[in-house]
Amino acid sequence: MRKETDLSRVHAATSLKKTVGDSVRIGVVTAEWNPDITQAMRDACIEALVSHGVNENRIQSVSVPGSFELPYAAQQMIQRDGMDAVICIGCVIQGETRHFEFIAQATAQGIMRVALENNTPVIFGVLTTQNMQQALDRAGGAHGNKGVEAALTCLKMLSL
Ligand code: RBF
User: Fold this and answer.
1) Residue 11 a catalytic site member
2) What does the pLDDT read at residue 20?
3) Ligand 1 site, residue 89, Cβ cutoff 6 A
């Protein structure tokens, strides 16, 4: 017998395909800091979007120097490029200075602000970890790939 959770997952995937359709345009912005992490998350994210029925030609992928720049680029992709949703991917690793706090806070608040002010889903696919191992674990390691979660979150928000 199938568990209820299995069924609801199947239902969610089917309805996502139906609701989001072929015409949706999704922007993916990736920060270049910690590139091994962010590129692995971006690739898994795009793969997940395509496997859920998003037209590959309608995914626009750009990169920015660091996570701090993600909100501005997301806003440009909405206002200038007409994206229906934007997924922001970054990785902020705690260092010895307080930079970590400033960058992580500003990025999170900036992304939320761009989403609300533009009435458009902007997804927070930004890892904030204490060290590189924790980041690796979440970019295709022991804790999966958070790029995939960001893709699924985006599709759920588009199908609201
Ligand atoms: N950007 C990241 O995406 N992740 C980081 O871990 C990160 N650490 C930084 C640490 C320092 C000391 C500085 C100066 C910048 C760091 N940045 C990081 C870059 C930041 O997001 C942004 O690109 C720059 O501050 C330029 O606006």
Assistant:
1) no
2) 73
3) no
Residue 7: strand pairing partners: none
- Which tokens belong to 115? 């989403």
Cα 106 from Cα 154, distance rounded (Å): 21
Question: And the tokens for 66?
Answer: 């660091």
pTM of structure: 0.91
Tokens coding 157? 């928000």
| Percent of residues in the chain assigned helix, strand, coil, to nearest 5 | 55, 20, 25
Selecting among 11, 52, 99, 143, the annotated active-site residue is 99
**Separate counts of helices (H) and strands (E) for the chain:** 6, 6
- pLDDT, one tens digit per residue, over 16-49 is 555 577 799 999 999 999 999 999 999 999 999 9
Other C-beta atoms lying within 10 Å of the C-beta of residue 86: 30
